[in-house]
TrEMBL record:
This is DUF1275 domain-containing protein. InterPro entries: DUF1275. Keywords: Membrane, Transmembrane, Transmembrane helix. The keyword Transmembrane helix applies. The chain crosses the membrane at residues 62-83, 95-113, 119-139, 184-205, 211-227. It comes from Pontibacter mangrovi.
Length: 240
C-alpha cells in the first residue's frame, strides 16, 4: 500500500491507499469545519475568501486566509523533501517520516483544550492544513498522481469525464482501464464521505479528540503495511 511505487503499484494498492487516507481527510475536514468553521483539507475556497477580504480591505482576515494557503503549501514542500531524502536512504521506508509527522500533528491538535483552540483558531487551522498538505503530497508521490485524497472537486470532474468516455471507448482494454479508474475515484469519494459521517457523529461526543481516530487509522495502515511486508518476506524465504 505505502511501499509500492512506480510500475510496482497495482489497482489494489491504490484502492487500499485511497480508502485509508480519504477516510482520514474526511475526519479532518469535518473536525475543522465544526471546531474552527474553516476548511482544513484543501485551499480552493481560501483563495476566494482571501480575495474577498482584500476587496473589503479586511487585511487582518485576509492575512489569515493567506496563512492557510501557505500552511498547506509548506506541508506539501516538507512532504516532498522528506520523500526525496528517504529515497536516497531507504526506499522501503520512504513513506514513514511524512506519515509519522502527520500522526503527531493530528494527535497534538486532538489533545489541545477547547480554550486553546478557541484562542488560537488560525494556528490550529494551519496545523491541520499543514498535515493535509503532507498527506496530499505523500499520496500523490507514492501513487504517481493517480490518488488524491484531500479534496473532491477534481475527482468529480474526472469521474464525469470517464463515465462519458465509457460510451465512446469500446475496446476491452480501454473499457477495463476506465472501469478501474472509476472504481478508484468512487472509492475515494465514498471513504471521504464515510470519514465525514463518522467524524460528525464522534465530534458531537468527543469534540476535537475525534482526530485521534484519524491518527489511529494512519497508525493501523502503517502496522498493516509492516506486517504484510514481513509476511511476504517470510514466504519468499520459505519458498527459496
Amino acid at each position: 500500500m505505502f511501499r509500492h511505487r512506480g510500475k510496482h503499484r497495482t489497482l489494489k494498492h491504490n484502492l487500499k491507499l485511497a480508502s485509508l487516507l480519504s477516510a482520514v481527510a474526511g475526519i479532518v475536514n469535518v473536525a475543522g469545519v465544526f471546531a474552527l468553521h474553516q476548511l482544513t483539507t484543501n485551499v480552493t475556497g481560501h483563495f476566494s475568501f482571501f480575495a474577498d477580504e482584500i476587496a473589503r480591505r479586511n487585511f487582518e482576515s485576509a492575512w489569515g486566509y493567506l496563512l492557510f494557503i501557505l500552511a498547506f503549501l509548506f506541508g506539501a514542500v516538507v512532504s516532498g523533501a522528506l520523500l526525496e531524502a528517504m529515497l536516497r536512504r531507504d526506499k522501503r521506508l520512504v513513506y514513514l517520516p511524512p506519515v509519522g509527522l502527520e500522526v503527531l500533528l493530528l494527535v497534538g491538535v486532538a489533545l489541545l483544550s477547547q480554550e486553546v483552540i478557541r484562542a488560537n483558531p488560525v494556528a490550529v487551522a494551519c496545523s491541520l492544513l499543514f498535515a493535509m498538505g503532507l498527506q496530499n503530497a505523500l499520496v500523490t508521490g507514492i501513487s504517481n498522481a493517480v490518488v488524491r485524497t484531500t479534496h473532491l472537486t477534481g475527482l468529480f470532474t474526472d469521474l464525469g469525464i470517464e463515465i462519458a468516455q465509457l460510451l465512446f471507448y469500446h475496446k476491452p482494454e480501454q473499457q477495463q482501464n476506465l472501469k478501474n479508474s472509476i472504481r478508484l475515484r468512487l472509492t475515494i469519494i465514498s471513504f471521504f464521505f464515510l470519514g465525514i459521517i463518522a467524524g460528525g457523529f464522534l465530534y458531537a461526543i468527543y469534540a476535537m479528540k475525534t482526530l485521534l481516530l484519524a491518527a489511529a487509522i494512519l497508525i493501523a495502515g502503517l502496522v498493516y503495511d509492516t506486517v504484510k511486508y514481513k509476511v511476504v518476506r517470510l514466504k519468499r524465504k520459505y519458498r527459496a
